[in-house]
Amino acid sequence: QLVGLPIGGVPVPVLDTNQTDLPYVSNVISRNVQKRASASLKVDYETSIGTFTSVTAYSKLNDVYGGDGIPYIPDTGAPGAFTQKYGLKNSAFTQEARFSSKSDSRIRWMVGAYYLRANSSNRNINGQDLAGAILPGFAINGAGTSNPTMTASNSEQRTENFAPFANNQFDLLPQLTVD
Hints:
This protein is mainly beta. Helix content is 0%, strand content 59%. The protein has a 6-stranded antiparallel β-sheet with strand order 1-2-3-4-5-6, with no helix packed on it. The radius of gyration is 27 Å and the shape is elongated. The model has no long low-confidence stretch (mean pLDDT 88).
């Protein structure tokens, strides 16, 4: 919000995030496509001394957004106004394996390991709004196009973690356990 400028004919006398009656002003049709997928599997295998547990999970997200720059400020589509495109891709795989003793004994234990592999990429392009539309894709658009690129960023992150763990419990008294 810009104090002193009308938005869609409604004056903005003060900066107030609770002023929810301001119209959404845009000359660019926005587009948002999200694709999500996830799956998980848990397997328990009982043995004479305890239980082996495996928990496997995978998730994937692809989110692409494009639209007008800032929808709550005056935007006539004249040179200087801008558009924005944002793309996010995330994927993650996790695996946990643990072996735990029977829960009804005086001494209980558990050992295991956790693994995570994740990938993330973010793309952001701000363009000049010369024709009331954004060009598709994430290419850098030249000065002679209807939506020339003003700023662009691309970042990637890869994460891999491994965490072994263990726990031991011993019942000293019926009401007192050392962990």
